[in-house]
Amino acid sequence: MGGSGQNGNIFTYDTLVHAISGAVGSVVAMAAFYPLDTVRSRLQLEERLQSKNTLATIRELIAKEGPYTLYRGIIPVLQSLCASNFVYFYTFHGLKELRSKRNQTAGNDLLLASIAGVINVLTTTPLWVVNTRLKMRGVGVTLEKNNNKYTTLYDGLLHIWKYEGLKQLWAGTLPSLMLVANPAIQFMTYESIKRRVITSTGTAQPPALVFFIIGAIAKAVATVITYPLQLVQTKLRHGYKYPNLPPDAGTLQILFYILKKEGISGLFKGMEAKLLQTILTAALMFLAYEKIARFVFRILLHRPYLR
Questions:
Q1: Residue 303 confidence (pLDDT)
Q2: CA distance 177 to 179
Q3: Fewest Cβ atoms closer than 10 Å to its Cβ: which of 17, 47, 135, 164?
Q4: Are 190 and 214 in contact (CB under 8 A)?
Q5: Helix 181-201 crosses helix 106-136 at what angle (to 10 degrees)?
Q6: Contact 47, 240 (CB under 8 A)
Q7: Per-residue three-class SS string for 19-35
Q8: CB of 8 within 8 A of CB of 100?
């Protein structure tokens, strides 16, 4: 297979290594910080938790439901994340291979990351719909029809398809497509800062801590900008109980409803936990991704890791 994309081929060994490294890195990072993702989901969906901070919510959940509840649904989440990040990293780096590696700019990174994000959303949204249901089952906010106790991604996909229709598997797709801006901004910021660091230090292999910090900064910028859409996405995937809204309300309807009822703060409900979780997860993911990719290139190809 092609090595460095000189033939303009998206199906290269390099692209596959980036995809596997990104998938494994994301799984390692999510497994490390999964309880924070659980807290974020609960804060977004449960009214009784709206005024609590992350630590207080963790304590309450452990006291009332036991420590297991912090890891509810972790296996299907890791499976979905692995598939999702494989698609995203493969597409992003495959598109970079198609374009010349010369003249890499923030604008090019943003474009390629956006295309990769759209492809990722369209192919993996059903997995995340099932994940949201599994994570929130049994906590008093489920709105499922014919609520069978499926426990796996496969059974969940079949259940929703059978009882709610194929369309429901792509619930929340519109805000998800809008949220392509999140990883696109994240990747653009990450690649831009990384290029500057490499140029200023004169080394292609900065210390591990540098990758961690760059990943954290990139995700913080992306999360703050796009958080209200993430809130609506979660509600559309899981279901919402707003008495004055129709069951098929759209993204903008829900956004304006929350803004009217709860104010600006309502649109950022749970963001503390989301920021903490996504910044730490993204930082660890990029660190693991860079290290895994570099290790594979060095061992199997006996050449340095170049991007």
A1: 52
A2: 5
A3: 47
A4: yes
A5: 130
A6: no
A7: HHHHHHHHHHHHHHHHH
A8: no
